[in-house]
Amino acid sequence: MSGDPGTGLWGAAEAYERYMGRWSRKVAPLFLDWLAAPDGLRWADIGCGTGELSLQIATRCRPSRLIGIDPAAGFLAQAARRIPGAEFRAGDATRLDLPDNGLDYAVSGLVLNFLPDPAQALGEMARVVRPGGTVALYVWDYAGQMQIMRQFFDTARLVDPGAAAHDDGIRAPICRPGPLRAAFLAAGLTEAATTALDIPAAFADFADYWEPFLGGTGSAPKYCAGLDEDRRNRICNLLRQRLPTGPDGEILLAVRAWGVKGRVPG
To answer: Ranges for the Methyltransferase type domain (predicted)?
Structure first.
């Protein structure tokens, strides 16, 4: 997934990998299993980021063509190194430089809620897919079972009520089944359906959980980086008390994404 190019919210590939990339890698196969697409089709991965979903498409779906589009040059370079058979281009999800009806699948992973105009992006995805083709995506369940972030923001708000302004569980109401289906139908897609994509997130210890929040990449780490040392330490200490911790210091959380798919009419 991605957002601003360069050094913006999602510009640091290594920091994103430790914060969220390691979990997004596990969700992508579940998403593709749900789509159950045949081999040999034409795909576009919109907001491809470092290529987690693109890599799974390339290895599991054997596409005849795979295009990854993202605004972040650093992410595109990393994706291109990982998936040499695919095409990677700088681009805007709301203004795709792709012809009408040229693809079988337009997909996106963990991107929709970060786009300035999700409705326009869905319209663009539908435009570039042939009649009968599929538009599909998945987003984190920020308000529910994306417990990595829920634990953080529920705790941060006890220390700093201003944390709510950065909480995607509040700021991204589209990341629920009902709003996702409604958005797909509004884009003219048919047979809109959703599914829960669930994985466990295991952390070796508290440091393994906490340190990615100090990387500055992503909404919660960006919020954390803007705090003074006292408030950041208070959040850290309260989290240490509140997180479910095993006898050897391990932390096991649930992580859920919502998948949604629809068909281009025709």
So the answer is: 45-136
pLDDT at 7: 38
Give the span between the Cα atoms of 101 and 132, in whole angstroms.
10
* pLDDT at res. 9: 46
- β-pairing, 65-70 vs 87-90, is parallel
User: What pLDDT is recorded for position 2?
Assistant: 42
**Residue 210 CA from chain centroid, whole number:** 20
Fold of the 13-263 domain: Rossmann fold (3.40.50)
Cβ pair 35, 64 in contact under 8 A: no
Q: Where are the domains of the chain?
A: 13-263
Q: Give the closest residue to 37 by CA, choosing from 102, 104, 86.
A: 104
**HEC sequence for the chain:** CCCCCCCCCCCCHHHHHHHHHHHHHHHHHHHHHHHCCCCCCEEEEECCCCCHHHHHHHHHCCCCEEEEEECCHHHHHHHHHHCCCCEEEECECCECCCCCCCEEEEEEECCHHHCCCHHHHHHHHHHHEEEEEEEEEEEECCCCCEHHHHHHHHHHHHHCHHHHHHCHHHHCCCCCHHHHHHHHHHCCCEEEEEEEEEEEEEECCHHHHHHHHHCCCCHHHHHHHCCCHHHHHHHHHHHHHHCCECCCCCEEEEEEEEEEEEECCC
Spans in the chain with pLDDT lower than 50: 1-11
Contacts of 63 (CB under 8 A, 6+ apart): 39, 40, 41, 42, 43, 57
Phi/psi at 197 (nearest 5 deg)?
-115, 105
Output the pTM of the full model.
Answer: 0.88
pLDDT of residue 14: 67
